[in-house]
Amino acid sequence: MNVRFIQRKTPSHSAKVSDEFRKSKGLILVTSNLPAGVDYPDVTLVIQVGAPSNRAQYIHRLGGTGHGKKAQGMLLLAPYGRISFYLASRIWQLQRLLCLWWIQTLIEKYG
């Protein structure tokens, strides 16, 4: 399983992680936003953290995935509005084992 967080990093670091991620298999992308032109054709599940501002942004976040293959999208929202990507990554770190189990279950279910 290949899960990556790219957050508040230098552009060169983000590009390196992005390239490694793109070349991997069994990809799950967790994102609060994606820049235009990002393309991950082997991603089968996109987990979006925080509400997009509109329908077009939601579709844009899913747009770089699948490319004719079966792909799924999931949107995680905080009970009281938006959750920041920073907070989501901290929650991930604190609950890592639970999250990894949950993601593995999704991989087994959705491929």
UniProtKB/TrEMBL annotation:
Enzyme Commission designation: 3.6.4.13
Limits of the Helicase C-terminal domain: 8-66
Any coiled-coil regions, as ranges: none
The keyword Transmembrane helix is annotated on this UniProt entry: no
Superkingdom of the organism of origin: Eukaryota
Presence of keyword Nucleotide-binding: yes
Listed InterPro entries: Helicase_C-like, P-loop_NTPase
Keywords: ATP-binding, Helicase, Hydrolase, Nucleotide-binding, RNA-binding
Family annotation (Pfam families): Helicase_C
Domain remarks in the Swiss-Prot or TrEMBL record: The Q motif is unique to and characteristic of the DEAD box family of RNA helicases and controls ATP binding and hydrolysis.
Similarity field: Belongs to the DEAD box helicase family.
Stated name of the protein: ATP-dependent RNA helicase
Organism: Gossypium stocksii
Species classification: Eukaryota, Viridiplantae, Streptophyta, Embryophyta, Tracheophyta
